[in-house]
Specification:
This protein has a single domain, classed as P-loop containing nucleotide triphosphate hydrolases (Rossmann fold, 3-Layer(aba) Sandwich), CATH 3.40.50. 50% of the residues lie in helices and 5% in strands. The chain has 18 helices and five strands. Strands 2-3-1-4-5 form a five-stranded parallel beta sheet. The longest helix has 27 residues. About 8% of the residues have low confidence.
Length: 443
Amino acid sequence: MCAHLSPIGCPGSPRAVHLPLAWQPLRSGEPREARQGFAPLHRPHPAVRLANRLAAPHSRRVRIDAAELLESAVRRTGLHDFGDDDFLEPLHVLVRACETEASLTFLGRIAARTNILRLLEQRLWLEHDRKRYPEIAKQSIRRPLFIISLARSGTTLLHRLLAQDPESRAPLSWELMFPIPAPQRPTYGTDVRIRRAQREIRLFNRFLAPKLRLVHEVGARLPEECLMMMAFSFRSFQFPSMYQIPSYQEWMEQHDLGPGYRYHRRVLQYLQWQRAGNRWILKAPSHIFGIDEIFANYPDAGFIHVHRDPLEVTASLASLTAALYSAFSEGIDLQRIGRDQVESLHRGLERYLRARDREPARQRNFLDVDYRGFTADPMKTVRRVYDFFGIPLTEDANLRMQRFLRRNPRGKHGRHRYSLRQFGIDPDAEARRFQPYRDRFGV
């Protein structure tokens, strides 16, 4: 979730990047009754709407061209080695989709260009440091825990709750946004990048998404999803969560995700290099597409799967997606978003179950958690997690988690209201399609 913040205020990027990005009205297609009684997140900020309107005639002057971006990254860093070239095809697919499908506003184009350029520059530095310091490649990632689920299933709470244990480590927003140079233990809590990341987040919250914290709170020091680690390979579901790019989503689902997860491991090794010794707690809903690839890179990985009724998930996810798309695009179609999210969930669950069931021995790596039980008694779930994976729960960790729960009650930032029909989703039809999953896991 933090990746979409990174285009704001990138050093060396156009001055306009410091302006709030684009929030735009919706296209027609939303049922009238869907607007009644709901609190949509996709509301344009007047200043952003005005900035995009005034700058619209100049939008095409902001180039999103793969060859030019590669050349710019080399020129700006003075480095030339991007490592393996398996990132080039998805980079071209992404750029083409941004140009032809995303309907980017002027500021949205600046955001997309800046984000891609930053990733290319950081990839160059990651490769440079890996060659310069051989000990990075020797870092051993032992027994990482992956929190997986359909989106909007309480995984953010579980992720941040488990991260309260001093013996655990979850990647924080600031180190995902600015991983270069590697975070170091003595300055981990005072690194200047923390303040820089928080400035960008404040801009995002104020101008781009003042209501988004109803769904997902972002903070420089808060744990975040690890999709950004895969973004350096340009094989990451981060991108279709930010931009309306269905052809890229389709490409991702049909091609090998292995290079993305190999780069995920490389970034994790880099982050661990100067601050080793902790157990990694990782999280992203899209990992349901990558179970085989996770096992290939982390053979001893453990999985905590939080199960929630897909029908409850779909509308919430579609609402969040609409808010993120609105940040960058001329307009969005709620009906299209609803259809796309439903189909993606179906495909993701089918792929996940095939991978999970491929080898019977894999079942011992998976702990299934019921969403309702978790939200009713989070600490009971925590104890199950620790018992299942053979991790000692210390009194200190227990107290820290209890304190975190007291400080972060459910609905702390308000309520997020939404409806399936708001996104053109027929609950009866979809209930039948999801029934095998619901029966298997009791949701």
